[in-house]
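**User:**
Make up any protein.

**Assistant:**
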Amino acid sequence: MIVSEILKENPKVSIIMPVYNTKSVLKNTLDTVLNQTYQDWEIILVDDCSTDGTYEYVKEIAQKDKRIRLFKLKKNSGPGTARKAGFQKARGGIIAFLDSDDLWADDKLEKQLKLMRDNNYQITCSDYEKADANGQPLKHVIKAKKRAGYKTVLLACPIGCSTVMVTSELLKKVKLPAIRKCNDYVLWLRILRVYPYIYGLNEQLVQYRVWPQSISYHKWKKIRYFWITWRKYEHLSVFHSCMLLLIWTVIKILGIK
């Protein structure tokens, strides 16, 4: 189906956000949604059994705005399961992903929807900037590829989860991975098995916060989860996985983008 027709029939954007113990930063994130220049949206927050009052905090906010919908998992299961549950509740023709500590530019939805409508792209992403735990920019901008296919994403995954927007129609064609780590990486690869490219908008529309415990903060953790993805979920051979690891290492050492 043509994206312009999808938006004509159902212009609502369903924003899926897993939440777990992020009460201290959640207000800033939600404010960037409330401030969007494109206002036909709903945000689906799926609480993963928070213990810091996150659920109660969102419940209070949701009573003031019907576009904010809150659900809770029966047990702590990780962001992959939360995203999958959120998609099952989504009512929009377009799905957007947003992590509970990331921040959007005010025109994020408007600009990416225009890109999708004008070019009939069913999945898009954008540039994003890394920030530290206090929200201070690290002056490190990750540039989106204009067009990233399966092989490109398999090697480096230049896609920030909170930058992605995808048609509900396309997302229904793949099984959302209910796993704790690298669930977004696995999801992009599954989508690229049924759709040729993820298209990038080279504008910085997201600020991504890097925490000391996050995979992005620790390179060895990142390598480990890349390896798990290649072997367990993509079913690549040891040789193929080793070659990918070697190429990835050389790219990082040489600073090739």
